[in-house]
Amino acid sequence: MTSRLELLHKAAFTFPAIDNHAHPLLKESHRSYVPFEGLISEADGEALSEDAVHTLACLRATPQLVKVLQLDVNASSWGDVKSARQMLDYNDLCDKFMMPCNIQSILLDDGLGGVAEWAEDLKWHRRFGCDTKRIVRIETEAETILKDAFQKVDLVSTNINHLTSEFFNRLGASMTTFCEDPEVVGLKSIACYRTGLNISSPVTIISDAKVHEGISEALATYNKANKIRLAHKELNDKIVHVALEVAGRYKKPVQFHTGLGDNDISLRYSSPSHMQPIIKEYPDTQFVLLHSSYPYTKEAGYLTAVYRNVFCDFGEIFPFVSGPGQRSIFRQVLDLCPTNKILWSTDGHWWPESYYLGTVQARQAIYDVLSDIVKKGELTELQAVAIAENALFYNANNLYKLKLVPKLTQHY
Questions:
Q1: Is the Cβ–Cβ distance between 21 and 315 less than 8 Å?
Q2: DSSP state of 3
Q3: How far apart are the C-alpha atoms of 273 and 208, rounded to whole Å?
Q4: Within 10 Å of residue 7's Cβ, how many Cβ atoms?
């Protein structure tokens, strides 16, 4: 049996972590509101309910959850996991899966659809002994501002040009307020979901007429259905530009969903390679490419390597990708990314199990990949330890200016 690298093992599995991108947990009253299979897949409909349970991701996650729930590892199924968790007191369920993670700080994006109605707030999450800070979702805030504006005007006779100007003034002021708020440590864009990462750049090429057209379309939708979902190319691109400019002035990182996501994205335009022009346009703004940009991890690695203002997050692949796949992706991250610019996250959401699996599987991948490199003589064990500690804690601590000191457990 291959000998274990004790120092690296200790760092990978017990060093405190900063979860640089996650979402709130469901309230107890809504604990069964979202299909539990969403824990292991981004699929929807029958692809989620019928197919996701047959993935390697689910087959691996099942015994890991069974162990925590203290069920029979050899005889328990995915269905048994669902039944057992449902029978537990909700607070006990959350504690059982959250406390072992050793997460010292969670940076929560609370703009996910349904959060306001179904999920707990940021302060509630501090019950697990971790600090929580906010990541503001740009498009969600833009929709809130626009909806408020529409409620205050005559929807038939309003001047679109004036409304557009007023909207962008309020958006800039809102982003400024958020960037001045010590509880907000960054912004996030879901341009990938709405219109793609091929964001028009420079901002001067975005047609005012097209932007006005986008406002008009949003107004028509609101007038008809009393709701807004911004998905107009030029309008959405200009919204992102406003946020990037403000974030650059205040040195607040901007996270971008890249790669892996549900079937609402256009896979073709989810590669971060499309972002190269906008990365160049805002050299003072720090870009965080979320989710390993999978399956475009190599592109993310390149951008992180050649631009000082780009960082690579390697979250969400835990637990959505198989174990071998996770190790392969993390190796690709290390192929080119400077190790002071890689960040870990769970992309935890809705269920405490998502944080647990996102943590234990990531820690395993970090150890497996780094230990293999050490054993091949390409890194010293101490160098590998530093990489693990940086990826789990120090890189995020520095980027988001959290000023935290790692709380070492008795096991470290």
A1: yes
A2: P
A3: 26
A4: 14
CB atoms within 10 A of CB 325: 16
pLDDT band of residue 159 (cuts 50, 70, 90) is confident
Which domains are seen in the chain, by residue range? 6-136+186-199+241-399 (3.20.20.140)
Which residues make Cβ contacts (< 8 Å) with residue 18, sequence separation at least 6?
A: 103, 104, 105, 107, 344, 392, 393, 396, 397, 400, 402, 404
Provide the pLDDT for residue 1. Answer: 45
Q: Which residue has the tokens 């003589």?
A: 377
pLDDT for residue 342 is more than 70:
yes
| Sequential DSSP letters for 26-41 | BPGGGTTSS-GGGGT-
Token duo for residue 369: 């990949």
Q: 262 Cβ partners below 8 Å, 6+ apart?
A: 42, 43, 44
DSSP 288: E
Residue-level pLDDT at 220: 87
- pLDDT tens-digit readout, 62-107: 999 999 999 998 889 999 999 999 999 999 999 999 999 999 999 9
Q: What is the pLDDT of residues 270-281, one digit of tens each?
A: 999 999 999 999
| Beta strands at 17-22 and 103-109: parallel, antiparallel or unpaired | parallel
> pTM above the 0.85 mark?
yes
**Inter-axis angle of helices 78-87 and 56-69, to 10 degrees?**
40
Q: Is the dihedral of CA 287, 102, 11, 314 positive or negative?
A: negative
Q: What is the pLDDT of residue 265?
A: 86
Cβ atoms of residues 110 and 23 within 8 Å? yes
Burial 221-238 (b: 16+ CB within 10 A, else e): bbeeeeebebbbbbbbbb
**Mean pLDDT across the stretch 240-251?**
98
Cβ count within 10 A of residue 72: 8
Cis peptide before 319 (omega within 30 of 0): yes
25's CB contacts (< 8 A; 6+ apart) are 94, 119, 120, 124, 125, 348, 349, 350, 351, 352
